[in-house]
Amino acid sequence: MLEIKDLHAGIEENEILKGISLSVNKGEIHAIMGPNGSGKSTLGNVLAGHPSYKVSNGSVLFEGDDLLTLEPEDRALKGLFIAYQHPVEIPGVGNAEFMRMAYNVKAKKEGREELDPLDFDELMSRKMELLGMDAKYKERGVNEGFSGGEKKKNEILQMALLEPKLTILDEIDSGLDIDALRIVAENIQKLSGDKNAIIIITHFPRILKYIKPHFVHVLGSGRILKSGGIELAMELESKGYDIIK
Amino acid sequence: MEKKDDIKEIIEGREYKYGFVTDIESEVIEKGLNENTIRTISGKKDEPPFMLEFRLNALKQWQSMSHPDWANLAIPPIDFQAISYYSAPKMKKKLSGLEEVPQEIRHTYEKLGIPLEEQKILSNIAVDAVFDSVSVATTHQKALAKKGIIFCPISDAIKNHPDLVKKYLGTVVPVGDNFYAALNSAVFSDGSFVYVPPNTKCPMELSTYFRINTQETGQFERTLIICDENSYVSYIEGCTAPAFDTRQLHAAVVELIALDNAEIKYSTVQNWFPGDPKTGKGGIFNFVVKRGQCRGKNSKISWTQIETGSAITWKYPGCVLIGDNSRGEFYSVALTSARQQADTGTKMIHLGKNTKSVIISKGISADYASNSYRGLVRINPGAQNARNYTKCDSLLVGDKCSAHTFPYIEVGNISSQVEHEASTSKISEDQLFYFQQRGIGRDEAIKTIINGFCKDVFSHLPMEFAVEAKKLLALRLENSIG
Q1: From the CA of A111, how many Å to the nearest CA of chain B?
Q2: Site from A84, A98, A144, A162 to mutate, B interface, most B CB atoms within 10 angstroms
């Protein structure tokens, strides 16, 4: 599904990713772990096509297409989804309105039926219930005045509505209390299946107790320093990031 | 992925789709302004003596005034002697019906989306079409007359309803009120007149569509709307002009009068030619005096304006709240892009007891534009228990534009309450990217954010105009971010 080869990228002249190679197949859950500043979030931004980041070398194939030549919105429509660590607030644009737009753009692209506000409301309400989100978050501005936990839930809500092929969860566990973490993790687990893939970017191994990754990669100074199974995460938990030094 | 440079390309590529010129022979009087000009205009319109006197008095006052310079605008000097004050399409005789409107003019309005042919006219809106200095057609006049509603060009009203005109003209905006009010009072050519008799709800929207066609003319229209006791009227104004590379001056005066329990809703969708987006050449100077008087108790006047065009917009539609319990409202979206400048806002003058006013202003500034909100809320000592709520938001698109807010608040008694909220925000790259990451393109993202920003104002426009206004903003802002 995703084939990253020797990816070098950064902001202006400052290279942050220094040769990442990674391949992700359908049905897999990967965890990318690493200390602060190791380039974890940069990877997600580069794959999504954030304009602040420049790719200097390497290639990325996503479902057979050269991902790096696509506009960000086309990458999204092909099934790439980023759940952000700090999703931006968009005052004045209703949360439900925003999500219906995103849902319908994708539905249209895939030749599925677009939903009118009433049908969409029904769908959205069902998904919000699963996440334990209050209905008041439908009409508020996107992420406007949401607590940290609600923002994270709101990201997972979009994931549930858009059913992406590849989801990158960027520090989805940060700032969540233990109950919220459990709900979020359970929902992610439910959304994973043999047709899609998930990359969990995280600093702490605790979320991996709820979502079991098939592969764990440790990132340091812009490179993957070590790959392994779940046992690598366990090792990190007991010994810390010293094991890669 | 590099988006930072596309702003230039977009500014150059943006089009003003109403910029065509109608090829019709016009009668244009000689440039310049003096007593003879006034006599010529008044003579051409076959006006009664009281009107000529009104004009001459205005001219005298104007000649003693100097051009105001307090606005936050860079206005190049205007040579008032280099403007022709009257231009009218040549017509063989007086028009007796819509079918006699010259074809070129009919086509012009059709292109602008306003059919003037009997079988095509919009059923729910009566339109007065003003072309340069004259009104060329007014639809639905007969149907309205059955209810006693007068809707006609003001030049007809001066001849056919002189008592009403004499009683009300210049009573809200006195001749010597300010420089442009005096100028307009001296030379105004046409505009609309509305009178709604007591106990009447006007059954359709009334609308005037202003079109400036001739180069180097000014348009000085005059609108007078009187809503008598227990009556209601909703009025819409629309405007466009051809794309010339010389400046054109539009200096209008609008007076509204609401008597006891009457309500006037006045909406403007202003889309004058903004000038060449790249060089800033040409475009309309839109200097307008608009004021309403809530004379009667429980009366209400509501201004809604969507200002998207003009090189320079300079106007403050206001309300003088005289009657007890009367209410004034001002809802505004002012969008400036490319090289446009706007200094706009409102005045709410509270005189009566328990008077209320609401001001919602949304300023959007993109590219190299400058956008100022200027608003006065004055509560006189006698206006016991008056209330005002003001919300004034600015949105910046890109990083070369500016937004300014100048609120003036004067409160003359302690029983009154005034609230003022203001905010400035910017459409950020991260917001747009968030949309994109969800599959929604940048243009659509900008439109959505702008519409979200303006929705408190759009909700006050008549339905079909809200749709128009949204489209207009989208068109103006297409690709308008670096």
Answers
A1: 15
A2: A98
pLDDT score of A89? 93
A174: DSSP letter: T
For residue range B379-401, list pLDDT tens digits in order: 999 999 999 999 999 998 878 88
Tell me the average pLDDT across B263-274: 85
CB contact under 8 A, A76 and B428: no
Instruction: Tell which residue, B241, B250, B260, has the closest CA to residue B16.
Output: B241
Report the mean per-residue pLDDT for chain B: 83
The enclosing domain of A163 has a CATH number of 3.40.50.300
Q: Between chains, do A88 and B425 touch, taking CB under 8 Å as contact?
A: no
Average pLDDT over residues B96-125: 65
- Tell me how far apart the alpha carbons of residues A55 and A58 are, in angstroms, rounded to a whole number: 8
Q: Give the nearest partner residue to B3 out of A51, A54, A84, using CB atoms.
A: A51
Mean pLDDT for A159-186 is: 91
Identity of residue B96:
S
Sign of torsion, CA A165 A169 A173 A176?
negative
Q: Do B1 and A49 touch (CB under 8 A)?
A: yes
User: How far apart, in whole angstroms, are the C-alpha atoms of residue B414 and residue B407?
Assistant: 20
pLDDT at B436 over 90: yes
CA distances, A243 to each of A178, A189, A224, A234, A238 (Å): 27, 29, 13, 12, 10
Give residue-wise pLDDT tens across range B58-89: 999 999 999 888 888 888 888 888 888 887 76
Q: Do A92 and B455 touch (CB under 8 A)?
A: yes
Q: How confident is the model at residue A80 (pLDDT cuts 50, 70, 90)?
A: very high
Q: Tell me the residues of chain A between 131 and 160 that have a Cβ less than 8 Å away from chain B.
A: 141-142, 158
pTM of the predicted model over 0.95: no
Residue B10 has pLDDT above 50, yes or no: no
A164, closest residue in chain B (CA to CA):
B438
pLDDT tens per residue across span B143-178: 888 999 999 889 889 999 999 999 999 999 999 999
Which structural domain, as residue segments, surrounds residue A29?
2-244
Tell me which chain A residues have a C-beta less than 8 angstroms from the C-beta of B473: none
User: What is the rounded distance in angstroms from the CA atom of residue A201 to the CA atom of residue A173?
Assistant: 9
Query: Which of B4, B438, B457 is the best mutation test for A, with the most CBs of A within 10 A?
Result: B438
Chain A residues within 8 A of B481 when measuring between CB atoms: none
**Residues 50 through 79 of chain A touching chain B, CB cutoff 8 Å:** 50-52, 54, 71-73, 76-77
| Domain count along chain A | 1
Asked whether the beta carbons of A236 and A244 are under 8 A apart, the reply is no
User: What confidence tier does B437 reach under pLDDT thresholds 50, 70, 90?
Assistant: very high
Q: Which of A48, A73, A84 sits opposite B440 (nearest CB)?
A: A73
Token digits for A213?
A: 């990754």
A81 neighbourhood in chain B, CB within 8 Å? 437
Write the CA distances from B420 to A131, B393, B460, integer angstroms. Answer: 39, 11, 20
Work out the burial of residue A223: count CB atoms within 10 Å of its CB; fewer than 13 is exposed, 13-18 middle, 19 or more buried: middle
B449 vs A: CB within 8 A: yes
Rounded-to-integer distance, Cα B17 and Cα B32, Å: 31
Give the burial string for B145-157 (b: 16+ CB within 10 Å, else e): eeeebbbbbbbbb
pLDDT band (50, 70, 90) for residue B204: confident
Comparing CB atoms, the residue among B425, B437, B455 nearest residue A72 is B437
Cross-chain Cβ contact A51/B455 below 8 Å = no
